[in-house]
Write a structure and sequence with these properties.
With 570 residues, the protein is of the alpha+beta class. The protein folds into three domains: 75-95 and 102-210, no CATH class; 222-379; 442-569, Jelly Rolls (Sandwich), CATH 2.60.120. It has helices at residues 10-33, 83-90, 173-184, 214-217, 253-262, 267-277, 280-292, 299-302, 348-354, 357-373, 377-398, 400-429, and strands at residues 39-41, 53-55, 75-81, 107-113, 116-126, 140-144, 159-163, 191-198, 201-210, 228-230, 242-245, 306-311, 316-321, 442-444, 449-453, 459-466, 469-476, 481-491, 494-505, 509-514, 523-524, 530-538, 543-553, 557-561, 566-569. Helix 5 (253-262) runs antiparallel to helix 6 (267-277), helix 5 (253-262) packs across helix 9 (348-354) and helix 10 packs across helix 12.
Length: 570
């Protein structure tokens, strides 16, 4: 016998209506009013959650079809990809945050250049957080000519990258930086320039870079069978690094020995162990060049953009640079031309070497030698000009106005190079005495210089006096920005506390920190005078540290009590 359902009471009916209305409001707000930060690209008919990739909301790259005939002095590469394969590449978006491993879909293409035809060329999209662009934008590509066609070479290259230079408006940083590393004695692949068409769509000018493989290694080493490791995206040296080439890719004992040596607590023992596994002489040159060229996104300062090769003849590991498209303070504020020549080393192996007396002394000596013999101001800027003149006619063929903007960008690059090299000379000639502390372990901080980012931000920085106090004052204009007062000090190994008092108003944020470090918790607007502090560690050899009193916001003011700013040795 079928049971008869009891009718809902009025109260329950009202409750159900309220629940459904609330759910509808939530869905409307989520989908229409507050869309997600990322748009999600579905792969296939019914993808699982891990098959979805975030599509970055970046402005499309500005590209123009040629307005006049493209000069024939640069390579003109035509890439033909079948529609199903193009769709595979179209569905890929980089999402390698926090070291997440991602399979990049690879397809086969036909490449044409100067009457030559190359078939079965392996192609995948390259790039990471800053340089990745989708397939229908201006994608960066890796082309492997010999992977499926044994012995096939493109102008002598089995593998090459086509870099879109979206982070370098000059297109020149890779070329000039690699030439300088090469002159310093650090192995680095070659670069050239090319224009690229993908399925008939002209994508404009690219930087063509030789691939990291055995062909490249043979120019420097007789035995190229050792592992060549890819540092990946912001990853420290570890036994799980990807292997680009090598006869024994599963043998990672060389990386484990390097990590063990770098982690040795005693400085003297650490140096001895490092010399047994690392080419320390070349590594010191590598470090010095990264600092000289303001390579803020390299291994030493950001644990990024590096390759590591095991030379079996010497049984030593060699670091090589990568990702040299953001150099000499680009983008502005990352590592200014006046930045310290003894910055905080964030890479483990860089720290391990620089925190020993031998490594620190050799580094400073090498820095001076390279400044004198390799980085000669007039020679470097003249070479930048020569490279610029080589690509300018091509840029003008696409857009004369873009060529004029390029002239300004090249002039800016040369100006930053000049500032950097002069600053290095000044720092090398200055006496390097460590900071003096009183009996209580305290040192006052009295010498401060203003800094604004971006450089033309409407901020006013001045020293003022209020109720008998000397203050460092920062005021934001309409658009705001980030302003700071900075002081450089030389510190010996140990732990220190940077402290002082500050106040703010009008919705701004303030903090004390050091250059190259992530922001600590910040004091918010609306408070009276509050104590701020930042703890820092300096290891081994004397290091130059830049202390920062920072303000950020679109409006408001900040005051730092000058007499309260001090460094305490703990």
């Amino acid at each position: 016998m079928q049971k008869t359902r009891k009718p809902l009471s009025p109260a329950r009916r009202v409750s159900r209506v309220i629940i459904w209305v609330a759910l509808a409001v939530v869905l409307f707000m989520r989908v229409v009013v507050l869309p997600p930060v990322f748009q999600w690209e579905r792969r296939g008919a019914s993808p699982s959650w891990h098959q979805r990739q975030p599509r970055f909301r970046r402005a499309p790259t500005v590209m123009h079809p040629p307005m006049s005939e493209v000069p024939k002095d640069l390579l003109r590469i035509q890439i033909e990809i079948a529609p199903p394969d193009a769709e595979r590449l179209r569905r890929y978006f980089w999402d390698g945050w926090q070291g997440r491993r991602q399979e990049r879909p690879e397809v086969r293409a036909t490449v044409r250049e100067g009457g030559a035809v190359y078939t079965n060329v392996a192609v995948h999209l390259k790039g990471a957080a800053g340089s990745f662009r989708p397939f229908d934008d201006k994608p960066a590509l890796t082309l492997s000519f010999a992977k499926y066609a044994r012995g096939q070479r493109f102008h002598g290259y089995a593998k090459l990258s086509l870099n879109n230079s979206v982070q370098d408006r000059t297109y020149l940083c890779e070329a000039i930086s690699r030439e300088l590393f090469e002159a310093a004695g650090v192995p680095v692949p070659r670069v050239d320039f090319a224009t690229v068409l993908i399925n008939g769509v002209d994508k404009g000018l690219y930087v063509l870079a030789e691939g990291y493989n055995k062909d490249f290694l043979r120019r420097y080493y007789r035995n190229v069978n050792g592992n060549l490791y890819d540092g990946g995206f912001c990853r420290e040296v570890n036994p799980n690094l990807e292997v680009n080439s090598g006869d024994h890719p599963d043998d990672r004992s060389d990386l484990r020995r390097l990590l063990a040596a770098a982690s040795e607590p005693a400085a003297a023992t650490r140096w001895n162990r490092l010399t047994q596994v690392l080419d320390t002489d070349r590594f010191i040159t590598f470090l010095a060049m990264e600092v000289l060229l303001c390579h803020w996104d390299g291994y030493a300062l950001n644990r990024n953009n590096y390759r590591l090769f095991h030379d079996l003849e010497t049984d030593r590991l060699i670091f090589m640079p990568h990702g040299l498209d953001q150099m000499f303070d680009w983008p502005p504020g990352r590592f200014p031309p006046e930045g310290p020549i003894l910055p905080t080393m964030n890479g483990l192996v860089a720290w391990a070497v620089m925190s020993t007396p031998q490594g620190g002394r050799q580094y400073l000596e090498r820095l001076g030698t390279l400044r004198t013999n390799v980085l000669q101001e007039q020679v470097v800027t003249q070479r930048v000009g020569e490279l610029a003149q080589r690509i300018r006619p091509t840029l003008a063929a696409y857009d004369p106005e873009a060529a004029r903007r390029h002239d300004a960008a090249v002039a800016s690059l040369c100006e930053r190079i000049t500032r950097r090299l002069r600053s290095v000379s000044e720092q090398l000639s200055a006496p390097r005495e460590p900071m003096k502390f009183d009996a209580s372990g305290t040192a006052p901080l009295t010498h401060w210089t203003p800094h604004v980012s971006p450089p033309r931000a409407p901020l006013t920085l001045e020293q003022v006096e209020e109720h008998g106090r000397r203050l460092l004052h920062i005021t934001a204009g309409n658009a705001g920005g980030t302003g700071s007062w900075r002081s450089r000090v030389n510190l010996e190994g140990g732990q220190y506390r940077f402290e002082g008092r500050a106040k703010t108003s009008g919705g701004s944020r303030i903090c004390l920190r050091i250059s190259g470090a992530r922001l600590p918790p910040q004091a918010v607007a609306g408070t009276d005078w509050v104590p701020l502090s930042y703890t820092l560690n300096v290891d081994g050899f004397m290091t130059e540290v830049e202390l920062i009193c920072e303000f950020s916001g679109t409006r408001g003011e900040a005051w730092f009590d000058l007499e309260s700013l001090r460094l305490v040795r703990q």
